[in-house]
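Researcher: We plan to redesign the surface later, but first we want a full-length starting point. Tokens attached.
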């Protein structure tokens, strides 16, 4: 069958391509319904990845956060109409030690491999997780971003020491909100401190114990462990501030993606005996755990509704451009595309 794929060909320019796909039994065909824009997609859309990377990765369909409905499963395991979240990581081998999202052989949608901006997405049957019928589709659209925190927490549990009195989250945006929320639910007896830049954004974090403006942190504040969710230019300051305020032997989970290498205070990492945990992307197990977590604690989904920034019906390529442009000018929340193209 012929499938239409909406590819970014150069900054701010999309083109339709027509792919001939065969209906194989190990693949399930999904019609995307709700897609959500990630900061990584914006770096391609605006061309901020630099000429070399753009030349290497484009043309490519963007978007790796999304849900849809099954339209065809030759094996009949998924009924037509089943709501599912799509897993963007595509492993090509298995490893006993290294997780699927760290294997250099894995492909990742919307990072050099076509993402979900297609009429139909052809997924290996293990790349889908069924969703409850009643879950808000606008929240479910960004489950992939929630799996990022869930995955980072698995790594944190494996690598950090066991004192969990205080956590610090740097970043008052999407990932910071999700991380602070999940930390509070996972460790209800711990104090969760937010370190951010903008008062009105920080006001959304009603569930935390304390919010600090990064320019006005009291000298005596200390944390056991930190999650850096700032990314970009802000990640350097955030990581160095964490190093200053963290107790010795604490762990720093770095989640924010930066375009350029950042300078960090390695002397104090050594002196304090800190553990730095890099965390990127997620795998199938993280999606399963995240969907279960959201089903078990419906209050989490209610809080996450606050992150739905703007919703766009997409019927044309111009609608896609409008959604990406609107996302660039929106300072709070996720941009969701209702995929009706
Ligand atoms: N590891 C992974 O697998 C993933 C990583 N990411 C990355 O995470 C990062 C955050 O994504 P997202 O939350 O969507 O982006 P947002 O822009 O929504 O959030 C980042 C927030 O951090 C704030 N900030 C900037 N500098 C600092 C600082 N020094 N201290 C505290 N806060 C600061 C920003 O404020 P302001 O805008 O005012 O500068 C902004 O509010 C991005 O780099 C993204 O690419 C995303 C998904 C997965
Ligand atoms: O957003 C992400 C996962 O959700 C990752 O940050 C993203 O995949 C990084 O990819 P790239 O190297 O293409 O920026
Ligand atoms: Zn992402």
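Model: Full-length starting sequence:
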């Amino acid at each position: 069958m012929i499938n239409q794929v909406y590819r970014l060909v150069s900054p701010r320019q999309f083109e339709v391509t027509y792919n001939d796909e065969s209906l194989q039994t190990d693949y399930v065909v999904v019609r995307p319904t709700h897609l959500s824009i990630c900061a990584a997609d914006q770096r391609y859309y605006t061309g901020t990845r630099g000429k070399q990377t753009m030349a290497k990765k484009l043309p490519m369909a963007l978007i790796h956060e999304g849900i849809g409905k099954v339209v065809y499963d030759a094996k009949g395991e998924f009924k037509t109409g089943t709501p599912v979240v799509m897993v963007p990581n595509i492993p090509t081998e298995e490893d006993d030690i290294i997780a699927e999202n760290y294997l250099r052989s894995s492909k990742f949608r919307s990072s050099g491999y076509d993402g979900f901006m297609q009429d139909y997405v052809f997924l290996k049957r293990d790349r889908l997780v069924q969703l409850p019928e009643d879950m808000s589709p606008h929240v479910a659209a960004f489950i992939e971003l929630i799996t990022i925190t869930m995955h980072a927490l698995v790594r944190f549990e494996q690598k950090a020491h066991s004192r969990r009195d205080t956590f610090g989250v740097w970043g008052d945006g999407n990932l910071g909100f999700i991380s602070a929320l999940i930390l509070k639910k996972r460790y209800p007896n711990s104090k969760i401190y937010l370190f951010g830049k903008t008062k009105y954004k920080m006001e959304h974090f009603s569930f935390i114990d304390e919010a600090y403006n990064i320019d006005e942190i009291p000298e005596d504040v200390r944390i056991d462990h930190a999650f850096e969710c700032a990314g970009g230019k802000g990640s350097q300051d955030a990581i160095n501030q964490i190093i200053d305020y963290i107790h010795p032997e604490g762990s720093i989970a770095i989640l924010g993606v930066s375009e350029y290498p950042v300078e960090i205070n390695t002397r104090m990492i050594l002196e304090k005996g800190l553990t730095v945990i890099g965390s990127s992307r997620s795998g199938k197990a993280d999606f399963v755990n995240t969907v279960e977590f959201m089903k078990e604690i419906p209050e989490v989904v209610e809080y996450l509704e606050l992150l739905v920034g703007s919703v766009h019906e997409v019927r044309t390529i111009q609608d896609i451009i409008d959604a990406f442009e609107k996302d660039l000018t929106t300072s709070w929340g996720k941009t969701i595309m209702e995929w009706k193209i």
